[in-house]
Amino acid sequence: MAATGPYNYSYIFKYIIIGDMGVGKSCLLHQFTEKKFMADCPHTIGVEFGTRIIEVSGQKIKLQIWDTAGQERFRAVTRSYYRGAAGALMVYDITRRSTYNHLSSWLTDARNLTNPNTVIFLIGNKSDLDAQRDVTYEEAKQFAEENGLLYCEASAKTGENVEDAFLDTAKKIYQNIQDGSLDLNAAESGVQHKPLTGRPSNSLHTDQQANQDKCAC
Amino acid sequence: MEETISKEDVKRFEEQYNAELEKGTVSSDTQFSYAWCLIRSDNKNDILKGVLLLQGLCHSGADQRDYLYFIAEGYYKLNEYKSALRYTNRLLQIEPQNQQGVELQEKITGQMKKDGLIGLGILGGTALLFGGAAALVGLAFAGRK
Fold it and tell me: Does the predicted interface ipTM exceed a cut of 0.85?
């Protein structure tokens, strides 16, 4: 009922996925949008794009995800996609220390090119390859804590924690909207509100009200 | 899919390109970044310039597939589908499983088919128009008699 109208979601969140070449950014996106593992995936050319509609606190949210090429030579051009991202998934490969060592440079880009409220989620990918591990969970966790990042290890291959990484980022963004720290009217908040038809207001309060009504049914 | 690039970005890449050009040698990365911006433009001349810059790059090196992809995209935006196809074909020769290449190629062939149909539609419409006009003329003559 509340979901009818021109849109079947009430928000659009823009995400970017960043990190070194070959850490599995496209595979994570593919696992999240298609629930499949893409083996032998060629390196991304420039950027790729994926979407999925999720639900957070009863609100339908469309995630618009920009998956950037990790090759160094694309770095300059992919930077223009950071602007206006509400969420950034920063990925390294737990079996290759160099990809972990480069995180500070990715984080600098993410901080400089997004807004202060952008939620940054650190993902240690390829957790299925524990035998080849080159970065411990603990040290990455500490890095995440020091830099105020959300963190988990995940596997695009088995699907472990992939869903959680994307959803937890959305939950945090939604929480920022609700507590007012993310101003939707600010340019480049990375969030678009799609007011549903037949309702006079596009305020959050109305949406929550409607949602509560719906839940009571 | 919305692909936006800010004017500041374009300007920044353009300035860098021009500065290196003045010094005598443009690095392939600079040329690539600037060309990439140009292809994202709405202006046909910009897109064409971007395509030409990329063609200057794609004679050598392992980075070819990236250049081929963006050249194809540029030609697609210029509605030059045959040229666009030539480049996606070359890309898919190098990486047959490249999903981005496959998708771009499908987009191009799809557009070619659609344009073919639209062409037929226009022809059909014109025939109708002529037919109608002829009938009117016929009526006019009939009325005179």
Answer: no
The two three-digit tokens of residue B107, written as one number: 């987009």
Cα of A87 to nearest chain B Cα, Å: 18
pTM of structure: 0.81
Check if the beta carbon of residue B17 is closer than 8 Å to that of residue B34. Answer: yes
- Residue-wise pLDDT for B4-56, tens only, equals 677 788 899 999 999 999 999 999 889 999 999 999 888 899 999 999 999 98
Residues of A in contact with B65 (CB under 8 A): 45
**Binary contact (B97, A42; C-beta < 8 A):** yes
Q: What is the pLDDT of residues A122-145, one digit of tens each?
A: 999 999 999 999 999 999 999 999
Task: Report the gap between the CA of A115 and the closest CA in chain B (Å).
Answer: 16
> What is the distance between the alpha carbons of residues A186 and A175, in angstroms, rounded to a whole number?
17
DSSP state of A83: T
Q: By C-alpha distance, which of B9, B27, B87, B73 is closest to A46? A: B73
